[in-house]
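Supplementary Methods, section 5.1.

A reviewer requested that the exact input to the structure prediction be made available. We therefore reproduce it here, unchanged from the version used in the analyses.
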Amino acid sequence: VLKLIERQASIYPHMVQYQVAIGEEYERQNNQKKADKVYLDLIDHLAPNPRTIIDLQKAFSNQGKHQLALQTLQKGEQLLKGTYPLNIQYAEVYGALNETEKMIKEYINLLDYNPGMISSLKLIIPRMIDFEEEENETHTLFQNELIRKIQKNPNDLVYYELLIWALVQRRNFP
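The structure derived from this sequence is encoded token-by-token as follows.
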């Protein structure tokens, strides 16, 4: 099996999921040391290319290796030097790690980079917040983070718009 995966990886070197699969095969063979080396080499030799970074993060996330996905994003952020937002990817990883507050902050911080992403957020947010549930901690965290953003950036209307949208979803008009 390892030979087959290695062959595929050499045929398609740009498809990082094959490289991750090599590490997984080492894990199946109870060789965690070799697996870790494969994973860390992938992160260490990451190209400063958003697509490559996101592909590796997704390959790790798809295998439940969320800490490695997080390390990939952190390394990618250093390489990209703020030229490309990885907020959605960070939010996905934080969500998988049950770090709800960090997840929410990443989604909302995406609007700092591009306020036009509000329509995308309006599609993503209902997947993480049950607006029908009365006592929903995630909704409270979301609402409080938006209020903090509004207080910090009172001239950025996009945060008001998102807060109003969230209240309408909940049918909660204070």
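The first helix runs from residue 2 to 11. These observations are discussed further in the main text.
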